[in-house]
Amino acid sequence: MSLRVFKSTISRSLRSQGISAFVSVPRSPRTSLGGGRFQTIDGRCQWMLSLLMPQGGVNAPICHGAGRQHKTISDQVRKVEYVDANGTHQTISDPGLLKAAAGCFGLLGIVTHLTLELQPMSYPVMRPEKPDINLAIPPLTPEDVPPALKGDFTPEQFAEATKRFQERVENDYYSEFFWFPFQQKAWVHCWNPVDDQEGAKEYPPTVEVWLQWIQGWLGGVIIETKFFRAIPGSWQAVFLATLTMAALPPQFLGTRDAEIKTFMPDALHFRRGVQNMRCRDMEFQIPIPSRKDDPSKPDWTIVQRAWWDVINLVYTNPESPMRLALELRIIADSDMIMAAQRGNKHGTASIEVLSIPDAVSDGDWQPFLQQIADKWMSYEKIYGQKLNVRPHWAKEWEGLDLGGIPARKYLKTVAYKDEIPEFRDTLKKIGDAQGWGLKDIKKLFSNELWDELVFDTVQI
Ligand SMILES: Cc1cc2nc3c(=O)[nH]c(=O)nc-3n(C[C@H](O)[C@H](O)[C@H](O)COP(=O)(O)OP(=O)(O)OC[C@H]3O[C@@H](n4cnc5c(N)ncnc54)[C@H](O)[C@@H]3O)c2cc1C
């Protein structure tokens, strides 16, 4: 069954039973899913969805969605079924062991089923906006705004926008922000669901789904043409940004409603076909620090800082290699041992820069990523507290220096110094109970990255 057909079937099935998933199901075109069943557990009538995921690529590297209440997809896993190094089908449902097993990068074995805990169906009311960039995530001071983006806003407008931004990131069920290079406007997608189904519609409507797929396909074709590659980088960026902003709601074509009330799965997958566009992507998870005046509260200024640091960097180079987008999502922490969000008690700013693979060379992209990584990792001194900033495992970080040392060394000796031994010990505990050893999984399921990070002490 194709992913699209599966998602549509499962959405209908979920709706008819009044439930929805609040975490993403895999979006990769290479991911196929099959089968699904619902269960109650422990008589508590929690709805479970068991997915056969021949490529459990979204769960393995601990992927995430958006919203400060939401941990990673791996945090929702209640049972992992897998084929171990001996070829035996095994099950793990102990919560302590799942902290390693549900986000283990494929090191346990071949995952055949994941059982996820879902929330009851609810109905997001989406009002996407395209505010001036100055007011979407306001700068800490007006001086932080590059001259090309300066607006004529009063201190009161900045204060009002800052309050609104803080409310959104702190409380909204789902919060994400986009900026496309050299654009005066941002795209803000923050929403909350309601329990009342009245007025909820399929989104996007069928025609628009096809339109979105075509747009995605066309985008892919255009960026691979000789003409596109030959035009200056700034033109490429502006061309893509203009098309993307035009395609995002509220828009001239397609859904014109300022307010879209829909079903939870539709809101989470409001944009179809985007996964067909190849991209380059570096994403970091920045912990939200505590406020100095009241450590029990989050200090959201770090988000403003991280956001405007990128925008300013883009403006230092008219041919900036960031040709697609700056994206920011607010998410929770994670209980997974190897999650980049682990320990972030106030939540996490999940921030990323994206570009196009064909028109941007490694020689341009890598130094840009290094500059961004240096910025995002420099905030500890400003906030005067430990901030364990870590890259998304499934995105680009290899080849960078983090904290002044090669990324792998940094991850092993600094960012996951305590977590890696805990992860290895938990895997060992699972193996002891299920009849395999660390050397078996190193031999069969590891690669040179995990040999270096996790299994360096394990002799085959
Ligand atoms: C357009 C786009 C949007 C994205 N959006 C997000 C996002 O919103 N949030 C986010 O966190 N990430 C996001 N990502 C990253 C994406 O979720 C990861 O790259 C994910 O790993 C992709 O899954 P895959 O199946 O294609 O990966 P693969 O490369 O096939 O798999 C990743 C790893 O998972 C393991 N694995 C896969 N299947 C199994 C199995 N059956 N058993 C055991 N191990 C297995 C393997 O170790 C493999 O190396 C996005 C990526 C793209 C391209």
Descriptive notes:
This protein is an alpha+beta fold and 460 residues long. The protein has three domains: 3-120, Uridine Diphospho-n-acetylenolpyruvylglucosamine Reductase, domain 3 (2-Layer Sandwich); 123-195 and 279-415, Alpha-Beta Plaits (2-Layer Sandwich), CATH 3.30.70; 419-453. The chain is built from 15 helices and 17 strands. It has helices at residues 3-16, 95-101, 133-136, 155-171, 206-223, 226-230, 233-247, 264-268, 301-315, 362-376, 379-383, 407-415, 419-434, 438-445, 448-453; strands spanning 19-20, 34-39, 48-52, 77-83, 89-92, 110-117, 119-120, 123-126, 174-179, 187-194, 260-261, 280-287, 325-331, 348-355, 390-391, 401-402, 405-406. The strands form four sheets. It has an eight-stranded antiparallel sheet, covered by helices on one side. A five-stranded antiparallel sheet has the order 2-3-6-4-5. Helix 2 crosses helix 13 (419-434) and helix 9 runs antiparallel to helix 10 (362-376). The two termini are 39 Å apart. The structure holds flavin-adenine dinucleotide (FAD). Flavin-adenine dinucleotide binds next to strand 6. Flavin-adenine dinucleotide is lined by residues 26-28, 30-31, 53-58, 60-61, 63-64, 105-106, 110-111, 274-275, 394.
